[in-house]
Amino acid sequence: MGSNNRYPVPAQIRFVLLWFQEWSEMQRGDFLPILAQKLSPSGCVNGVVAGMEGLSCQADRPPSLFQCRVKLFGDWVTGWSQADKDHFLARLKELDPQFIEKYEAGFHLLVSGQAKADDIPGEVVESQNIAQSPVPNQEFAADEYLGEVV
């Protein structure tokens, strides 16, 4: 069974949102160009994002948890509809509006052809600390990931 079929799309989105909240600012910065590349319309970005290459595993070390999660995101997002992607971005915006501002600025440069994916800044401006609570006044239990759409 492929990774796209193991969990329904709403669960995949919830997993990635939870991971995003756990990531440091540096990891979010590493995720930014990958997000732009994966969500760009086809034909806007050629090749693999340099940030993704930087996340590749070294032969003598297993991948980090962050690398595994980014790979899963990349595998999953290819099966998401545009509505799923829009929902995901809307939830990210709720969690970290400054991250999405940076994403949107870089994304518009990609679409207009003024930049390549590896030109998008990897640093994410400091955002409000949301790592304590995935959604205000709501805690996630492991079995909730497979429940209702967020």
Describe it for me?
The protein is built from seven helices and no strands. The relative contact order is 0.21. It has a domain at 24-121. The protein is mainly alpha-helical and 150 residues long. Helix 2 (9-22) packs antiparallel against helix 5, helix 3 (25-39) runs parallel beside helix 5 and helix 6 packs across helix 7 (97-112). The chain is globular and about 40 Å long. 54% of the residues lie in helices and 0% in strands. It starts with a helix and ends in a 38-residue tail after the last helix.
* Unreliable stretches: 45-54, 122-150
Helix content: 40-55%
Pattern of helices and strands:
HHHHHHH
Mean pLDDT: 73
The separation of the N and C termini measures 25 Å
Main beta sheet = none
The shape, in one word, is globular
The proportion of strand residues reads: under 5%
Number of strands: 0
Structural class: mainly alpha
**Please, how many helices?**
7
InterPro entries: DUF4508
Pfam family, one: DUF4508
Short description:
With 150 residues, this protein is mainly alpha-helical. The chain has helices at residues 3-6, 9-22, 25-39, 50-54, 65-77, 82-95, 97-112. Helix 2 runs parallel beside helix 6 (82-95) and helix 6 (82-95) crosses helix 7.
